[in-house]
From TrEMBL:
This is ADP-ribosylation factor-like protein 2. Belongs to the small GTPase superfamily. Arf family. Mg(2+) binds at residues 30, 47. GO terms for molecular function: GTP binding; GTPase activity; metal ion binding. Keywords: GTP-binding, Lipoprotein, Magnesium, Metal-binding, Myristate, Nucleotide-binding. The keyword Nucleotide-binding applies. It comes from Laetiporus sulphureus 93-53. GTP binds at residues 23-30, 69, 125-128.
C-alpha cells in the first residue's frame, strides 16, 4: 500500500476537511460563519487574529479557519495554508474601491504551493446591499476566468439574508470530497449528474 493510499484511508476514516476563509477585512467572513452557525450576527467586531469554527455538515467535520484580513495581518495568512482543502475567498461586492486590491491578493494566494489543489469558492457577499456588483461583474473584476490552477466557483450571497451560504458549503464539500474521498463520497450524496472534474461554473 503506497503512502498516498494510507493517507487517503486515514482521511476517509476521519472525514475531516480544513477550510480557510480569507478575503479583505470587512468582506463578511466572520458574519457568514456566524450566520451558518445560527449565531447572532449583530455587533461583530473586526477579527484581529483568527477564529476556528467546527461544523458537522453532511457527515463531514469541517474545520473552518477565519483569519483577519486587514492589510497588516495579511502577511500572516501564510501561517494557515498547510493542509488546506478549500479556500473560501469572501468579497464585499459593494466595495468597488478595493476590487483591484482584492484581485491582487487573491491571485497572489493562488501562486502559493501549499494551496495548490485546494478548491476555491468565491463568495460575492453583501448582495442585499443596493448597488453591489453582481457575481458576473465580480468574476470579471477579479479576473476569475484566467484561473486555471484551481477548481473554482463563484456564488452571490448575503450573510444577512443567508442567501446561498449553505449552497456554497455544499459545493465546497462536494468538490473536496470528490478529490479526497472519491470512493466513499458517492455513498454519502448522489453525485451531480452534470459534474465533470474540470468544470468551471459561474452562477
Ligand atoms: N449588508 C450586509 N452587511 C454585511 C454582510 N456581511 C457582513 N456584513 C457587515 O460587514 C461588516 C464586516 O463584517 P465581518 O464579518 O466583520 O467581516 P470580516 O472582516 O470579513 O470578518 C459588518 O458590519 C457586518 O455586519 C452582508 O451580507 N450584507
Ligand atoms: Mg472577521
Amino acid at each position: 500500500m503506497g503512502l498516498f493510499t494510507i493517507i487517503r484511508k486515514n482521511r476517509q476514516k476521519e472525514k475531516e476537511m480544513r477550510i480557510l476563509f480569507l478575503g479583505l477585512d470587512n468582506a463578511g467572513k466572520t458574519t457568514i460563519l456566524k450566520k451558518l452557525n445560527g449565531e447572532d450576527i449583530s455587533g461583530i467586531s473586526p477579527t484581529l487574529g483568527f477564529n476556528i469554527k467546527t461544523f458537522v455538515h453532511r457527515n463531514y467535520t469541517l474545520n473552518i479557519w477565519d483569519v483577519g484580513g486587514q492589510r497588516t495581518l495579511r502577511p500572516y495568512w501564510r501561517n494557515y495554508f498547510e493542509q488546506t482543502d478549500a479556500l473560501v475567498w469572501v468579497v464585499d461586492s459593494s466595495d468597488r474601491m478595493r476590487m483591484q486590491d482584492c484581485r491582487e491578493e487573491l491571485h497572489s494566494l493562488l501562486l502559493e504551493d501549499r494551496l495548490a489543489g485546494a478548491s476555491l469558492l468565491i463568495f460575492a457577499n453583501k448582495q442585499d446591499l443596493q448597488g453591489s456588483l453582481t457575481s458576473a461583474e465580480i468574476r470579471n473584476a477579479l479576473g476569475l476566468l484566467s484561473i486555471k490552477s484551481h477548481h473554482w466557483k463563484i456564488l452571490p450571497c448575503s450573510a444577512v439574508t443567508g442567501e446561498n451560504l449553505v449552497e456554497g458549503l455544499d459545493w465546497v464539500v462536494d468538490d473536496v470530497a470528490r478529490r479526497l474521498y472519491y470512493s466513499t463520497a458517492i455513498g454519502d450524496t448522489a453525485p451531480h449528474p452534470t459534474f465533470k472534474p474540470a468544470t468551471i461554473s459561474v452562477s
